[in-house]
Design brief:
The protein has 608 residues and is α/β, with parallel strands linked by helices. Helices cover 52% and strands 12% of the residues. The strands form four sheets. A five-stranded antiparallel sheet has the order 1-4-5-3-2. Strands 8-7-6-12-13 form a five-stranded parallel sheet. Strands 9-10-11 form a three-stranded antiparallel sheet. The model is unreliable at 1-19 (pLDDT under 50). The structure holds one RNA strand of 77 nucleotides.
Length: 608
RNA sequence: GCCCCGGUAGCUCAGUAGGAUAGAGCAACGGCCUUCUAAGCCGUGGGUCAGGGGUUCGAAUCCUCUCCGGGGCACCA
């Protein structure tokens, strides 16, 4: 290691730095200036690509930030990395925020920040409060985030919960870093599954009327179907009743009777439509749709997951979007007819096989609706479109992208984020679930069991492509083993200290604390200061990478540093200067923990 | 068969666009409460980063092959 004298003061850069909310951009500016001056002297080619080259050090002896710039650019400069590093360091403008610069190892440039820089962070946090950590990285670009979008054929279950928590947090993170976010739920309010729901409701209704019938193998068997049927019966009494024998007349046999369960349920749907007539059938259908959708909305709302728009699939048919999308694909020559169906030649765009747009029976497919929906999204002019799907839909990605390309749209504007399943564990045992039989744990049951805070946090604790083991016992436990309580407790502890202060008849003077920040020289205080200054970087990384787990882990670490500090040092000391400085620091910690938890949709209580 | 995701400490997982000695929490073991909440803190042990080969100054990270686990391959939604 060696110290190198570096350049002339550049007041412009420090003036700029005072307006910055975090330190990393300042150092990037300094490095840029150094590169430019080497370029001006001809020591570096003018087209040298700088890129991202600044990172937090893992080891404090390497300073606060390290840059591998010299190693990256040494080929272009045709010099050894360490020689280039020395030239770069010599060309670095001076800054109040930087106390020392070192060259180390193969050619790392290590930056040691001055205590002033960290003290400025505390001031920033206390001034900006809830705004600390927000940025304008996204520059107001618009992004649409579609998530959950579960079929309204039953209540949300724990699998949807992960998509809900993940999607909501990704959306909030993007908003925090300056994107204009539109949150949307795509309501599959058309199609065969909804017909099956309507038929299931109707059959349960007939049962309530006193008809004897055997419920179809492929019908929806959940209790909520009985509830909807009961509403239907309250409203219409026996007015919609037809003899079971009439309803089942001419319907193909069900599976248990050696028939085809699909043909059986479709046959029942057709009978229901015929016997009830268009209007009354639609009434049954809409009663099912509306009550389930209302249930889903309430569930998500209670979970702290809010939407700007509930987009109806049916609207795509009624306003001819589907027809228009299909027509555009036909006009551009990407379709063909085969076996009575209209096919989209998605294999031209890398899909495994071609896909049907319009079935032999004249009905357009779900895929056709989805093309129209994505066409609609892009027509609305978003800069980016994000779809969050369950991992079981991954095979669907290539064909949607293929369709967008065939339409002449920019498929790269679409990001599809796939969320893996969550497996629940209770008492060390896997909780068995089966959607078919209607035996699944609902999101509501989960929320009631472990609480919203734990559920939100646990769902985003793992990166989305990881299969997740959700430990219900841990989520419920009120101990330090539970990261949610651990973090919330740190927040509450600060509030508690301030209450103690008041009880002792003392007051906290922020300005005095700010003037005494140089008294914070303990190793624990230093560690806390570093973490607090990292927060904006963490939010940006988490937002840009769609990785809420980064924030969850950061908060756990920050809470740990706070608890460690709490145990090692008394805050409410007699020395007023030191006391106020410490109060500034821990209040800043409370603010950052609170800001982070809010982004994750978790509450930050002042007492527990 | 083809495609996607994963394989890091006994368990659950991080590892920030290849970087410096691979980390955390549980679990195990040993300590710390007359003092701001012990819902907390400190210490100890623990690793063939699934395995082989390659790319380069440098690989848990990139390429390739093999093995293991999960998921997907509809004129369903």
């Amino acid at each position: 290691m060696e110290d190198v004298e570096y350049g002339t003061p550049a007041r412009i850069i420090d003036a700029f730095a005072r307006n910055l909310k975090s330190m990393k951009p300042l150092l990037s500016q300094l490095l840029c200036a150094a590169v430019q001056s080497l370029q001006a002297r001809g020591d570096l080619p003018a087209d040298a690509d700088i890129g991202v080259n600044l990172e937090r050090t893992r080891d404090r002896s390497h300073g606060d930030f390290a840059s591998n710039l010299a190693m990256v650019l040494c080929k272009a400069a045709r010099t050894k990395p360490r020689e280039l590093a020395e030239k770069l360091v010599a060309a670095l403008p001076a800054s109040e925020q930087v106390s020392r610069v070192e060259i180390a190892g193969p050619g790392f440039i290590n930056f040691f920040l001055s205590p002033t820089a960290y003290h400025a962070t505390v001031d920033h946090i206390l001034e900006q409060q809830a705004a600390y950590g927000r940025s304008d990285l996204g520059q107001g670009k618009s992004v649409q985030v579609e998530f959950v979008s579960a079929n309204p054929t039953g209540p949300l279950h724990v699998g949807h919960g992960r998509g809900a928590a993940y999607g909501a947090t990704v959306a909030d993170l993007l908003e925090a870093v300056g994107y204009k976010v539109h949150r949307e739920y795509y309501v599959n309010d058309a199609g065969r599954q909804m017909d099956i729901l309507a038929t299931s409701v109707y059959l349960r209704y007939l049962d309530l009327c006193g008809e004897q019938l055997s419920f179809p193998a492929n019908g929806y068997k959940g209790d909520y179907v009985w509830d909807i049927a009961a509403s239907l019966h309250r409203k219409h009494a026996d007015a919609l009743r037809h003899p079971a024998a009439t309803v089942f007349e001419g319907v193909p046999a069900d599976e248990p009777a050696g028939g085809d369960k699909e043909a059986h349920i479709d046959g029942l749907t057709n009978r229901a439509k015929k016997l009830l007539g268009e209007t009354r059938y639609r009434e049954v259908f809409d009663l099912g749709l509306d009550s389930i959708l209302e249930n889903i909305r309430r569930d998500l709302e209670e979970f702290g997951v809010h939407y700007d728009e509930w987009f109806s699939e049916r609207s795509l048919t009624s306003n001819d979007s589907v027809q228009r999308a299909i027509q555009r694909l036909r006009d551009s020559g990407h379709t063909y007819k085969d076996k009575g169906a209209l096919w989209f030649r998605s294999t031209d765009y890398g899909d495994e096989k071609d896909r049907v747009l319009v079935r032999e029976n004249g009905q357009s497919t779900y895929f056709a609706s989805d093309i129209a929906y994505h066409m609609n999204k892009l027509e609305r002019g978003y800069d980016r479109v994000i779809d969050i799907w369950g991992a079981d839909h991954h095979g669907y990605v290539p064909r949607v992208k293929a369709a967008l390309e065939a339409l002449g749209d920019d498929a790269d504007k679409l990001d599809v984020l796939l969320v893996q399943f969550a497996i629940l564990y209770r008492g060390g045992e896997k909780v068995q679930m089966s959607t078919r039989s209607g035996e699944f744990v609902t999101l509501r049951e989960l929320r009631h069991e472990v609480g919203n805070d734990a559920a939100r946090f646990f769902y985003v604790m793992r990166k989305c492509e990881q299969h997740m083991d959700f430990d219900l016992d841990l989520a419920k436990s009120q101990s330090s083993d539970n990261p949610v309580y651990y973090i919330q407790y740190a927040h509450a502890r600060v509030a508690s200290v301030l209450r103690q202060l008041a009880e002792k008849g003392l007051t906290w003077e922020r300005a005095n604390g700010a003037a005494n920040l140089h008294r914070l020289t303990e190793a624990h205080e230093d560690a806390l200061l570093v973490s607090l200054s990292r927060y904006p970087e963490v939010v940006e990384t988490a937002a840009v990478g769609h990785e809420p787990h980064q924030l969850a882990h950061f908060l756990r670490d920050l809470a740990n540093e706070f608890h460690t500090y709490y145990n090692a040092h008394q805050f409410l000391v007699d020395d007023k200067g030191l006391r106020d400085a410490r109060l500034n620091l821990i209040q800043a910690a409370r603010q950052v923990i609170g800001n982070g938890l809010r982004l994750l949709g978790v509450s930050a209580p002042d007492s527990m």
